[in-house]
Amino acid sequence: MNWFQSTPVWECGDKVVVITGASSGIGKALAQDLADQGAKLVLAARRQTELDALAAELPGETLVVLTDVSKEEDCQRLIEMTIQKFGRIDALVNNAGISQTTRFADEKSLDRYRAMMNVNYFGTLQCTFYALPYIQQSSGMIVAVSSMTGKLGVPTRTGYAASKHAIHGFLDSLRTELINTDVHILLACPGYVATDVRKVASGTDRDQINDAPDLMSAEECAAQIRRAMEEKRREIL
């Protein structure tokens, strides 16, 4: 026996897990990881072809729901379709997000800032709003895939950092409201991860991120998040 290996508090097997931004990057890798543990997955993103391809390769039951998390009606429909299919939600993973690589003084409009708040913050807010009653019923968990940028200020990421700070403020506050319940909240705050979000970040300084050293793979990041879910940790960096 390995006395230093922690015993999972929250078993992934047979759990119903909703993952936004599941078509690529951390979301896709987490779907693959959780599927290997026996979870039933609801895969949500804006790219139907990629979602269908992922669902086809995963073991176990899956549901694909085309979702733009910036639209409240899409978030509501995502949760409703999950309940229609599985009857419950054990975990919501708010992973969908967009980034940037532009210095604030170089911005020509605030359109990108509004887009980042709509996707990153309001996407998390809206999905959580509709999922929370079911998560309370199952004594489940809410996960947000955030970033170290949600804790620190980073050049060329002003809008991204603001949206991630908003997520932290929202979920830290929600955690206190739910302190007398069995609902668990996890904030995952990785550093640089090799994902499509990084590759397609809007702005003029993309090389600064693309050339960042010591990029973590999406698969390793996903494995760390899954372990943190199993151990019911509040935050991982």
Automatic annotation (TrEMBL):
A Pfam family: adh_short
Location of the Ketoreductase domain: 15-192
Keywords, alphabetical: Oxidoreductase
Entry GO MF terms: oxidoreductase activity
The UniProt record lists the keyword Oxidoreductase: yes
Family: Belongs to the short-chain dehydrogenases/reductases (SDR) family.
Protein name, as recorded: Ketoreductase domain-containing protein
Organism (species): Phaeodactylum tricornutum (strain CCAP 1055/1)
